[in-house]
Amino acid sequence: MLIIGIAGGTGSGKTTVVNTIIDELQHEEVAVISQDSYYRDTSDLSYDQRTKINFDHPQSIDFELLVKHLKQLKEGKSIPQPVYSFTDHNRTGETIETPPKKVMLVEGILILTNPELRELFDIMIYVHADSDERLIRRLKRDMKERGRDLDEVLNRYQTTLKPMHQQFIEPSKEFADIIIPNNRYNTVAVDIVQTIIRERLD
Ligand SMILES: Nc1ncnc2c1ncn2[C@@H]1O[C@H](COP(=O)(O)OP(=O)(O)O)[C@@H](O)[C@H]1O
Ligand SMILES: Nc1ccn([C@@H]2O[C@H](COP(=O)(O)O)[C@@H](O)[C@H]2O)c(=O)n1
């Protein structure tokens, strides 16, 4: 099994890069694990309390469960990947049975900050886009797809997103084997990653 970690700030294009990588590969050989599925269960909190959580801090992620699941996949076992709702700011209680595949792509803003996770990755990738570009993309995406308004996104950006990016996410770039510059769509870098994966699949 080849486990590839794909990190980068919010809006840098991680999900887009992952989708482009797997588009041309045989889907039955590749699976994706999203760090977003591993936000901690916060059912004990009210909705209002959940809106105030700092979702860009490493403590918001259940890394213990993510590490446990990756180890189980490596052992050839399927895992129940939790389903997360950005509308409720919580896990839904449902899970998706995720079987082990030859190539596992793990994507998320904070995955390179965790030493135990880094140990499990064969290749670490960091997707870079400038902060103004990321904010514009995040605004458009969260308003269109995650039910947020302008004030919510800008307030979150100023209070948690930007400081956490500077404190935790940007510094984790030093662990990356490959940095993908993604201010514009980067087909060359994606081709390179696809080639590495194809070699492993052959
Ligand atoms: N290189 C790019 N140029 C322009 N828009 C992009 C680019 N990459 C991604 N996007 C768009 O930006 C938004 C955020 O991208 P996404 O892949 O969800 O980022 P991430 O997973 O890193 O938060 C999406 O609407 C996506 O279509
Ligand atoms: N309930 C939540 C949980 C997380 N976020 C934000 O999602 C971002 C990470 O996801 P990406 O797909 O953008 O990598 C992160 O920056 C959190 O602020 C949220 O808004 N609400």
UniProtKB/TrEMBL annotation:
The keyword S-adenosyl-L-methionine does not apply. Its main location: cytoplasm. GO terms for molecular function: ATP binding; cytidine kinase activity; uridine kinase activity. SUPFAM superfamilies: P-loop containing nucleoside triphosphate hydrolases. Residues 3-188 form the Phosphoribulokinase/uridine kinase domain. Its EC number is 2.7.1.48. Pathway: Pyrimidine metabolism; CTP biosynthesis via salvage pathway; CTP from cytidine: step 1/3; Pyrimidine metabolism; UMP biosynthesis via salvage pathway; UMP from uridine: step 1/1. The keyword Transferase applies. InterPro entries: P-loop_NTPase, PRK/URK, Uridine_kinase-like. It catalyses: uridine + ATP = UMP + ADP + H(+); cytidine + ATP = CMP + ADP + H(+). Transmembrane segments: none annotated. It is found in: Cytoplasm. It is an enzyme of class 2 (transferase). Keywords: ATP-binding, Cytoplasm, Kinase, Nucleotide-binding, Transferase. CDD domains: UMPK. It comes from the Bacteria. GO terms for cellular component: cytoplasm. PANTHER family: URIDINE KINASE. Belongs to the uridine kinase family. This is Uridine kinase. It comes from Mesonia phycicola. The lineage of its organism: Bacteria, Pseudomonadati, Bacteroidota, Flavobacteriia, Flavobacteriales.
